[in-house]
Design a protein that fits this description.
single chain; 271 residues; alpha/beta; Rossmann fold; 8-stranded mixed sheet; globular
């Protein structure tokens, strides 16, 4: 079910019975709610799964993306209004994972479980400037509909069969990636990579947290995981062997579920 919540200018896609424990999964930059669609369909037998579309993405492409903090404001408002102020689980990949960290820092008991996948905890200004320059001079080669169709066509040559998008996700990808606006990408890279720093208040979180990253991730992502664990010592790190950035969340839903579902069933955390 799709819904817009009164007073909250953001689109939410919901799966499962609203009386079940709530899980919110936040997509990465450039993607949209369908990032976690396959996971949501499986989890919806047991949970109420909420997939937001961040401003500037997907069907919200006309609303400019502002920042990690602004996104957290809107998601927290949704949680307070629709979930009694608390979730069972919260997860996100890349930009979405940074928003998870921000939500954890806002309210110690916002969620019982959290999964952060391949996200940055501290500024990387050089990397941000590089990405912004690429967008400024090459967006039509990366985000036009023709470019997106070419990317989908090249996937079988670049990724193994188990990482291919099904037809439904391919259609969403071509539609949504091709209409994201440069201004939103500028804001996203500037705030995600250049400005955001993990808040001291995250030390107070009561959530059980897992921090995932791919074995082939950039050094700064692995350093971010270690930084987060220094703030939240109970956090557990999971390194996905042979994987690059966001592979479990974006391309490998079965592997994501194989790790996440046992974590959700745990009654106690250990580190």
């Amino acid at each position: 079910m799709d819904c817009n919540t009164k007073g909250i200018d953001m689109k939410f896609h919901e799966f499962g019975d609203k009386n079940n424990p709530h899980i919110m999964l936040i997509h990465g930059g450039g993607n949209a709610w369908w990032n976690y669609l396959r996971q949501a369909r499986v989890l919806s037998d047991r949970y109420h799964v909420i997939l937001p579309t961040l401003d500037g993405h997907g069907e919200e492409y006309a609303s400019a993306y502002i920042s990690t903090e602004d996104s957290a404001d809107k998601l927290m408002a949704y949680i307070e209004e629709n979930c009694g102020g608390h979730l069972f689980a919260l997860g996100g990949v890349s930009l979405g994972g940074q928003i998870v960290m921000e939500l954890l820092s806002r309210k110690p008991d916002v969620t019982r479980k959290a999964i952060i996948d391949g996200s940055l905890c501290f500024p990387r200004p050089v990397m941000a400037r590089y990405c912004i320059a690429v967008i400024r001079f090459g967006s039509r080669f990366l985000f036009s509909e023709k470019a997106c169709r070419l990317q989908i066509a090249m996937m079988p040559k670049l990724l193994p069969a188990k990482m291919q998008y099904p037809e439904e996700i391919r259609s969403y990808y071509i539609r949504d990636m091709s209409r994201i606006r440069k201004e939103s990408l500028y804001h996203m890279y500037r705030t995600y990579m250049m400005e955001y720093r993990l808040k001291e208040s995250v030390r107070d979180t009561k959530a059980q947290v897992m921090y995932w990253y791919g074995e082939k991730e950039m050094k700064c992502v692995k350093e971010s995981a270690r930084m987060f664990c220094s703030y939240v010592p109970s956090c557990r790190i999971h390194e996905a062997k042979g994987c690059n950035h966001g592979y479990l969340s974006i391309y490998l839903p079965e592997e994501w579920l194989a790790i996440a579902e046992p974590f959700f069933r745990e009654k106690n955390s250990s580190c």
